[in-house]
Amino acid sequence: MSKQSAKAKAGFGAALVAGLQTRGQGAQLPAQTSAQTAVDLTPEARLTELEGRIEASIGQYQQSVRQLQLRHRQELGLLLEEIRDGELFILAGYEKFGHYIKGRWGWDRSYAYRLMDLALVRRALAPLGAAVVDTLPESQARTIAPVVRQQGDLAAQQLFKEARQDATESGRKLTAAVISRRAEQFTASAQSLSDSAGEDDVVDAELVDDDAAAELVNADIRAAAAAAEKAVRLLDEALARNVAPFDAGEANQDLSRIRSAAVKLGNRAHPATA
């Protein structure tokens, strides 16, 4: 055997021995690496680190669940909307869509309409991007839905952008309340235009689906009742904190709006006629 061959053989043998000695000690999983670094931590510091990782994992899980629930509800809304608009519920043996919802799925009609409102708003706000429609809470969508129905997609997009700007300028989080305040301005503007419209702008009543309109009346009244009950709960919670508001002027304005709304609700909440 030549000296060169012997040298190569010896080198290969040394490499093989080294490999066997380090077998199982190469790539490490993140958990293994973390366990090694924990040697340098006190038990208290290690507990703090582990609890922080648990909280982070829970937060990620909850965020994923919320996004999945939202997509699920939006998809249901789209599917229900197609069944309603195509009157496919008749094929299932139901004369009315509301009866189909109750009989086939066991849901209240108001729940089905909330789902369809989600789908309606998602479609209207789609041009604003997935970052908006994939994270829009149901409470915000319900506030935007009337604007979509009454004024169209472009108005809804403008409403959302202006409400988001309002939140940014005030340094606050975008909420349904912020959108609702801006929506009131949109509604007032639309009402003004409607009042000044000519006869050519009047919708032919014969084109209105009476059953669908009647179901919407129920859905709107139920939504109003839920909103009123929620308003009472929120006001009770605010008063129970027993601390002065951060901005007393703004709080007094909102309380004045609540009193005004309560008077209007009392005047309008008369028993419905069949």
Task: Indicate the topology.
Blueprint: H1 3-21, H2 30-37, H3 43-85, H4 97-105, H5 109-125, H6 130-133, H7 138-151, H8 153-170, H9 176-195, H10 210-240, H11 248-268
Helix pairs in contact: 3-5, 5-7, 5-8, 5-10, 7-8, 7-9, 8-9
Q: Which key phrases capture this entry?
A:
274 residues; mainly alpha; DUF3102 domain-containing protein
Give an account of the 3D structure.
This is DUF3102 domain-containing protein. With 274 residues, the chain is mostly helical. It is 74% helix and 0% strand. It is built from 11 helices and no strands. The chain has helices at 3-21, 30-37, 43-85, 97-105, 109-125, 130-133, 138-151, 153-170, 176-195, 210-240, 248-268. The protein is globular and about 70 Å long.
Percent range of helical residues = over 70%
Radius of gyration: 30 Å
Element-level helix/strand string: HHHHHHHHHHH
Unreliable stretches: 19-36, 196-209
**Broad shape:** globular
- The average pLDDT value, as a whole number, equals 78
Share of residues in strands: under 5%
Class computed from helices, strands and strand pairing? mainly alpha
Number of helices: 11
> Could you give the distance between the termini?
109 Å
Give the beta-strand count. 0
Question: Biggest sheet, in brief?
Answer: none
Protein name: DUF3102 domain-containing protein
Organism: Streptomyces tirandamycinicus
